[in-house]
Amino acid sequence: MRRFLCLFVLLFGIGATQAASTQNVPAKSVLVLGDSLSAAHNIPVEAGWVHLLEVRLKKMEPGWAVINASISGDTSVSGRNRLPGLLAQYHPRVVVIELGANDGLRGLPLADLRANLATMVDAAQHAGAKVLLLGIEMPVNYGPQYRDGLRAVYADLAKEKHVALVPFLLEGVALNPALMQDDGLHPLAAGEPKVLDNVWPKLEPLL
């Protein structure tokens, strides 16, 4: 009997610990998996488009939370490796994938980028989440073949996997010096509301 009681206490304790570990997981969440473009690079976190999204959701869609798992410098292979753990931890309803810029800057073969993105989309969909892909563009010095091929990666994958797509996250921002940092790659705080405006029309129907 004593052994049974000890086993019962042990099992109950484990269950209580597991319950406590999930108490802070929001019931409805948007998981953003990205790089420096979503991690508020060199600007206050509060000015970044992901935080602005969180503020908007709190006003318009009560009960939704935003989990920003973006890391500056992240690549598609890193995101692919991190995503399963994030899905298991947060059980998001929507997954926003904003990766590929650093792969492009390093000249990663487009087939490898596509494979990594496809694996992430499959994992998110298998977990029951809706997916939004955020496309990026390379500077003109990368040549039309690579730049066109990169656009096709996002467009073809979105069509094949039946997921929403923003073709270019920085549309209306990237070519405006008043909205971009000196590196020509990252928006200033003044450009982040426009970035959110690019994302919102594709994200809102998924909520």
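Above is the first protein from milestone M3; the second protein from the same milestone is given next.
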Amino acid sequence: MEKIPMTPGGYAALEAELKTLKSVERPAIIKAIAEAREHGDLSENAEYHSAREKQSFIEGRVKELEGVLGLAEVIDPAKLSGTIKFGATVTLVDEDTDQEKTWKIVGEHEANVEKGLLNIKSPIARALIGKDEGDSVEVRTPGGEKSYEVLKIVYA
């Protein structure tokens, strides 16, 4: 199987979610199912069916997280330098609007555009890989062609 690149922070967040699911959520849902069973007829017991559905979701997420963490290749950006690669925090300026944006290039399981965490497989991240400060980057986005200039690359 292919390794999944991940920052130390992304790995820790997924590990914490897995621990919470196993030590808090799983026992709570088992208790909720037991309580719902005590109410008698399960065919018309909405609490029971809701709890079973939540249990199914929790177990699926546990398996998914265990799989992702098992394949994770933790890459510490602080040990990197040079051109843009995984883990880089990149400040760009839109050449049309002069608007600055800063993104950190991370693995797909920790990506969150609202928080400035860009999936390494995204069109912008793929266009940035290998570029250096001062380079111009053309990116084909769903909204059309965009041109950016790389202002700063930081590995922290």
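Note on the second protein: The helical segments are 8-37, 46-71, 123-128.
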